[in-house]
Amino acid sequence: MFDDCAISEAVRCFGTPLWLYDFEIIKKRVAELCSFDVVRYAQKACPNLSLLSKMRSLGVEVDAVSAGEIVRALKAGFSPNQIRYTADIFDNNSLALVKEHSIPVNIGSADMLLQLANAGVKVPLAIRVNPGFGHGHSSKVNTGGDLSKHGIWHSQLPEIAKLAKEKGFALECLHIHIGSGTDFEHLSQVANSMEKAIEAAGSSVKIISAGGGLPIDYKGSSSFDTSAYYNIWNATRKKLETELGHSITLEVEPGRYLVAESCVLVAEIRAVKKQGENLFYLVDSGFTDLVRPAFYGAYHHISILSATTKKLANTPLVDAIVAGPLCESGDVFTQEEGGFVVSRKLPLASVGDLLLLHNAGAYGSAMSSNYNSRLLAPEILSENGELKIIRKRQTYEQLLENEIF
What is the pLDDT of residues 189-212, one digit of tens each? Predict the structure, then answer.
């Protein structure tokens, strides 16, 4: 994806830590899903305006889960009918924006439907269905089943569809999403659930959304068969078209799948230390940048780029724990779910060497924070051999600007 020279040049120009993106990876992932009628990007995975705008130019539409994401999508050039607002509630700001721009809505609760009606809003309506099961790479990203807050419970779908009709809404879409980074078996089960949901919702449905959750292999040993996944959903679509007597648009809603592999988080090793028998590499990036290991126990491949001319390929591998600068014991990049700290086989490194956390494009920069009053890192786009800054490093003035003293 990036050669050593490009990474070193990015660090020379912009410092560390930094996010470095390769848009060619995103283009490739979008192309892999082109059999679907609509590829609707779940922008929460990585909402940078430049990346959103470039995805729009590829024909991608967009999902928004907050008022801020609606504002981002409009700023990036998406028209209101290319945006779908998906949530389990409205706050005042999101309802106002939906009303102002007539943005299609994917409801996750009966109260959302009533609030739309009471506000005098008539927009194309989708229903997010909780099929009664879920799955994902972590229990924290399982979005189906009776312990999940998301969606309309499947047995309640007939009454919600009836209420929508009574309130004058055209129910045009059903959407099911069971979790992020789930496996092929569970994703396939969603198609069967959609058939049952259509029976309950009625014949007005003209769009079915397979949701997202398409996985990537963070350890790089396999790839997801998008053609097989499309074929399952296309068979469901054709069956429903025969039963309903009209054509059905088939959507997919990837987030992680489009952007995860496009980015590396580049940090600098600032200390190398022994703690008993354990060797630690301490870097200038922490869970304020990439929270996934601390929050989910998520795995990210790690590599090291030497700050000198020595070839790390010729250096011995050692067991090392990689941790960040935060005043938190959980600020460790090499940990498993449950907070169990583990080591990795990494080249013997020195202060000043660069440490790369790979496949960091999804829920990386998007989940960054200012905890410990850390500054948000810049985002850099590599395109046609040129480095372009697409988000500046936050300044201390910006960190403090909304506080009143």
Answer: 788 788 888 888 888 999 999 988
The pTM is what? 0.93
Is 13 tagged catalytic?
no
Query: 33: which 2 tokens?
Result: 């899903």
Query: Which phi and psi angles does 288 have, rounded to 5°?
Result: -70, -20
User: For residue 290, how many other CB atoms are within 10 A of its CB?
Assistant: 26
Measured between alpha carbons, how far is 171 from 112 in angstroms, rounded to an integer? 14
CA dist 63 and 179 (Å) reads 16
Taking the C-alpha atoms of residue 344 and residue 318, their distance in angstroms, rounded to an integer, is 8
Residues across the chain: 405
- Interval 259-293: pLDDT, tens: 999 999 999 999 999 999 999 999 999 999 999 99
Q: How deeply is 291 buried, as exposed, middle or buried, from its count of CB atoms within 10 A (0-12, 13-18, 19+)?
A: buried
> Which of 13, 173, 263, 327 does the annotation list as catalytic?
327
Which tokens belong to 190? 């969603």
